[in-house]
Amino acid sequence: MTARIVVADDEADIRRLIVFTLHRRGYEIIEASTGDGALAEVQKTMPDLVVLDVMMPGLTGLEVSKLLAADPATASIPILILSAMGQAAEIEAGLSSGAHSYLVKPFVPRELADRVAEMLAARP
Predict the structure, then answer these.
(1) Residue 54: its pLDDT value, please?
(2) Is 51 helix (H, G, I), strand (E, B) or coil?
(3) Is residue 1's pLDDT more than 80?
(4) pLDDT tens-digit series, residues 32-82
(5) Rounded Cα distance, 2 and 97, in Å
(6) What share of the chain has pLDDT > 70, as a percent?
(7) DSSP bridge partners of 83
(8) Alpha-carbon dihedral of residues 94, 100, 106, 110, nearest 10 degrees?
(9) What is the secondary structure of 14-49 as a DSSP string?
(10) d(CA 8, CA 68)
(11) Could you report how far apart the first and last alpha carbons of the chain are, in Å?
């Protein structure tokens, strides 16, 4: 079965690169350009994984991560934060929000695809 991934980033060019990279690996991708949109898509589609930018209109990626982690219906969905915010404290905040992994922009597309594959393989 093809893994379904919600990708949320407010920058269209970055989102296209993420979508292209993951679609080439055979994943089904659902896009969102806001935190609110990401939350709604996750609740509607119950994906296998979520990729979140931090700085987005409406809810931030960290707020979405906290909400997903706190909801028993979505708490088991792995979350990858993909953000330009790369200071140690920012990464710690991302992981403390409920995210399972953190990747700093700019990123190498293959590294993103490999990280997603690892996270999906680790799912129970």
Answers:
(1) 96
(2) strand
(3) no
(4) 999 999 999 999 999 999 999 999 999 999 999 999 999 999 999 999 999
(5) 27
(6) 100
(7) 104
(8) 180
(9) HHHHHHHHHHHTT-EEEEESSHHHHHHHHHHH--SE
(10) 14
(11) 15
Q: Backbone phi, then psi, for 38, in 5-degree steps? A: -60, -45
- Structure tokens belonging to residue 70: 């706190």
Burial 93-124 (b: 16+ CB within 10 A, else e): bbeebbbbbbbeeebeeeebbebbeebeeeee
User: Do 34 and 58 meet the contact criterion of CB atoms below 8 Å apart?
Assistant: yes
| DSSP element (H, E) containing 65 | helix 61-70
pTM, 2 dp: 0.96
Cβ neighbours of residue 122 closer than 8 Å, sequence gap 6 or more: 78
In Å, what is the CA distance from 72 to each residue of 8, 17, 61, 77?
21, 31, 18, 10
